[in-house]
Amino acid sequence: MYTLQKVIARLNDTHRLNAPEYRQLLLDDDARNDHLLHSLARDAALSVFGNGIFLRGLIEVGNHCRNNCLYCGIRYGNPNVRRYRLSREEILKCCAQGYSLGFRTFVLQGGEDAAMSDEWLEGLIRSIKEAFPDCALTLSLGEKSEDSYRTLKAAGADRYLLRHETFNPGHYARLHPEEMSRDNRLACIAALKRTGYQTGTGIMVGSPWQTVDDIVEDLLYIQELHPEMIGIGPFIHHKDTPLGDMPDGSVDMCIKLISIFRLMNNRALIPATTALATLDPEGRKKGILAGANVVMPNLSPACVRGNYALYEDKAHSGAESAEGLDELKKELQSIGYDIVISRGDYPGDNNDKEKCIM
Ligand code: SAH
Fold first, then answer.
1. CA 20 to 30 Å from 70, out of 46, 111, 224, 248?
2. What's the N-to-C CA distance of the chain in angstroms?
């Protein structure tokens, strides 16, 4: 057998590879190998989740941010952003709308905003969990102290998404301002795990100056961390950032990585991300057929969606939106999948008492 096929088969069997093997896999561009990788990954996801795709309702709670990440459209230094912050009532309204549509997980994402204090967030989390006790709540609100993470967990948050973006400290430093560091990012992720969150991390694929060796480091980090959720999407430029002239990431590389992560952990929750769907109209389907099992339609109030522009032309309508659920459903059915109404926890956690196909 051709050696790379053996490497792929071993990843499928043992769920791990070493650095030179990952490197070889990433550099390979033989379509037959990609085909093998995608189909094994798809089978791995099917064996754990069947043909059910989990929904997460993404509520973009605000775009005020103290950080100045060089790639991000809502960075502090972008004067062209119309800043907003949703009120508790607005967020609860989004959840109610989402609940009636079948969402059982809400993701609160936003910039790092001191005005959304721990106290305020605690109150918000408690009211969401009180109103929707059968729903899971995911936070994606950036770097905080371990104490804060613990407080928010105690208030009822179940999961936390914090992509490490890139493991290599030198690469991390080129993408972020001086006051941010790779070490602090990793320390936050470790704190989230210790605190008991279902933890998600991940990278931007094709971010400026990213090398294959950088991605190998990301793969090894995630292999050891064993996070419950792995979120990856292509880098997409935003004209009002210092990296506005840089080329966008590759959809093919993103899909290849989805498959590698799936084979690393059959049970991981892996979204076909909005960034993937933004760069390629077939991106969502390609992601699912390569092993992704989660989609995150936008549940934010329509009037603020345009202001949460992390990158150019970010998709937030049609199948990327809560009101486009029928379109999404049809799209998934066209490739043999269905939306599942459930919290969609990491398998092994016995929270999914009631589960039904939509
Ligand atoms: N403040 C939160 C949420 C950040 S936005 C946090 O720090 O985690 C969520 C993700 O969007 C980021 O982790 C990043 O990976 C991604 N993102 C930001 N800018 C992007 C861009 N220009 N292209 C693609 N993805 C981007």
1. 224
2. 43
